[in-house]
UniProtKB/TrEMBL annotation:
Organism: Micromonospora echinofusca
Family to which this protein belongs: Belongs to the beta-class carbonic anhydrase family.
Region (Disordered): 1-38
Example GO biological process: carbon utilization
Classification via Pfam families: Pro_CA
Stored SMART domains: Pro_CA (SM00947)
Cofactor details (free text): Binds 1 zinc ion per subunit.
InterPro entries xrefs: Carbonic_anhydrase (IPR001765), Carbonic_anhydrase_CS (IPR015892), Carbonic_anhydrase_sf (IPR036874)
Cofactor requirement: Zn(2+)
Protein name: Carbonic anhydrase
Function: Reversible hydration of carbon dioxide. Catalyzes the reversible hydration of carbon dioxide to form bicarbonate.
Gene Ontology molecular function: carbonate dehydratase activity; zinc ion binding
């Protein structure tokens, strides 16, 4: 598989490794953003929510009793978050979102199997979600465990070996590129997961090629609380407009 930024094995989607640009929150805290309808708008909304979280000014949208009732009969999330299971990586908190906004799938090291891919495909094709985000973080324990197991030759016990095996290809790529620091390896693993999702899911690749969905890899900084984009398919996904405000 190719690293984002070089020709990939899936026809259609362009792959790259851009640097993210944070969005800003709407000036009027009494208003709620319009529901994003495109990958670019969805990404802008996530960045805006993350900025509110980082600056200590969250709005906690869509968490009231009225909205709970409103979404009881159906959901229309604007982003799928395929995130690491780390307890410090709660997507609705770090993106300042609420009920019905995010379709969240979490595994250690954001590893992907058939169940994860099926969940993503459901969100994208049935619910019409326009953005898929692979969310990793610095100092990832799954990556560290895989690195230790690979260096010592001692496989972990039980099903943890499946997590390690899923991370090993990223370790091989990092070694080939001369990347040794753990956070650099994490970035490569995030980008590799984006690639792997498109390579293994023809359904997702078709939606991306048709322009109905985008796939973005993000890394979260545990101390600062910030997210940054490390991979995007297609590349234009990161050219995100400012989120529009509308009446709540």
């Amino acid at each position: 598989m190719s690293r984002p930024g070089s020709p990939g094995t899936q026809p259609g989607p362009e792959r790259t490794l851009p640097v993210s640009t944070m969005g800003t929150a709407p000036a009027d805290a009494s208003t709620a953003p319009a529901v994003p309808a495109s990958p670019e708008q969805a990404l802008a909304e996530l960045h805006a929510g993350n900025r509110r979280f980082v600056t200590g000014a969250p709005r906690h949208p869509n968490q009231d009793a009225g909205h709970r009732t409103a979404v009881a009969d159906g959901q229309h999330p604007f982003a799928v978050i395929v995130g690491c299971s780390d307890s410090r990586l709660a997507a609705e908190i770090i993106f300042d979102r609420g009920l019905g906004d995010l379709f969240v799938v979490r595994t250690a090291g954001h590893t992907i199997g058939p169940e994860v891919l099926g969940s993503v495909e459901y969100a994208v094709t049935v619910l019409g979600t326009p953005l898929v985000v692979v969310l990793g973080h610095d100092s990832c324990g799954a990556v560290q465990a895989a690195r230790t197991a690979d260096a010592t030759g001692a496989p972990p016990v039980g099903h943890l070996c499946a997590v390690v095996d899923a991370v090993v290809p990223s370790l091989r790529r990092a070694a080939a590129e001369g990347v040794e620091d753990i956070d650099g390896i994490v970035d490569i693993h995030i980008a590799h997961t984006v690639e792997a999702m498109l390579d293994r899911s023809a359904v997702l690749a078709t939606e991306v090629a048709a322009g109905r969905c985008g796939v973005v890899g993000m890394s979260y900084r545990l101390t600062a609380g910030e997210v940054r984009t490390v991979a995007a398919v297609p590349a234009r996904t990161v050219d995100a407009p400012e989120p529009a405000a509308s009446a709540a």
